[in-house]
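Tokenise the fold.
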Amino acid sequence: MTTEKLRVAAIDLGTNSFHMIIVEESRGKGIVEIDRVKNMICIGRGSISTKMLDEGAMQSGIAALKNFLVLAAHHGVAPENVIAFATSAIREAKNRVDFLKRVRDETGLKVRVISGREEAEFIYYGVRNAVKIGKAFDLLFDIGGGSVEFIIANNKGVQLLESRKIGVARMYERFVFSDPIVRHDIKMLEQFFSAEMVSAVAEASKLKVARAIASSGTAQNIARMIFAMNGSPNKASLNNSLFTRKEFQALYTALIPLGSLERRKFTGLDANRVDLIVPGLILIDMIFRLFNLNEIVVSDYALREGMVLHYLKDQFNAVGEQEHEFELDIRKESVYELGCRCDWNRKHSEHVATLSLQLFDSLASLHHLEAPYRELLECASLLHNIGSFISISSHHKHSQYIILNGELRGFSPTEIEIIAHVARYHRKSPPSEKHTAYSILKPTQKRAVDVLSGILRLANGLERGHRQNIQHAAVTVKGSVITLHIKPRFEPDIEIWSAELLKSWLETVLQKTIIIEAS
């Protein structure tokens, strides 16, 4: 692109709320979130049955959009880089043209009304950049106020894009007439949901879908309540978290019988969703049952992020640039973005990662760790030094904190924990039960951290001079002795000296003595 950095604001005029996300895209650092804001306008209030937007809601919406635009300007977003899409409630309203004209006249903002299928496509763009989608087909769904989008996709592309008029505000207005909800209304909702999801269920069955990814505020709120019930700490990001069918059923059983006053007291429930959570719970219950799922993964990215990614892709294509930014593996891409944001030493980190993977492969007969841990070791190696951005003396601890809070995309919370711990223990003291965060890991996770941090410490020692001197590292094992064979370009005195100082933890973990030989 012609500019090194580009700031974009994406506004989603939804049935329940208006949202805006502001991001900055720059070379190397990727897409970084600058700010986000939400206003519960409820533009669809009463319009689902009347097909007319309420005057008060329209005025509130225009006021919110004015504030959004002021905020975007303060963040340096050029007016031409503010994009705005309207979804279900505005899409169906008879007076939508009048409302959008008023928006244009009073704010200068040109809002595009998108179809349900376009909405599903944008959601797909967002989700695939937050949750790793593999060879097997996944069901992606997003619960809005007016509609629910269903997408079935794998890493090769999309098989189904569908939008159904079963959003929680629409369903609440149409089917919920009592508080707490009575069994008859639950049955009516279940039957309606079942009829609307027939084609998606059939396609999912044909493609053997086994996992679902949810990208809506409703799903996130349900996840927060489940985690609160389980005593899990409240997390700023839920991305790649999951809840099981059993966990969901426990929440459903506890919440459905309650009236709104009792629901309001429920830990983790957003005050703005006290009523709408009821049809939301019933819908997710039906998704679990009809699609025969055991768990649902949560995506932090959805429509707004998809809007931004699609817009940026078009910007790149407009100047003849390739789309490689948008086709990379999201996990590796996210790791590199975090490293760049912390002004890392890329060559050093990549060389440490190379040596770490050589050692991991060469020691496979001793550590018996499976392939997924190899990728986590690579990521920890790439990020082990990013804490130097804050201070040198305790950079291993700062690296741990940044990794835990850096919003890495595509990784589960457990995977991020392991990456952060391995980076934490690449120098200074080794893993210890005295360290609270380490002590609460599961035994299998502790052993993985022990082995991977031992390998990383040794690899880091072999790159002590930051000069990429050691071209290759491999081991032979004989009895209680591991011989580490290194191939240097120059005299490796400093690398051997450093590796000798750092090898003891791996010796302890593997219960072997390590001897270093240079060829």
About this structure: The radius of gyration is 26 Å. The chain has three domains: 5-115+304-324, 130-300, 330-518. The first helix runs from residue 47 to 50.
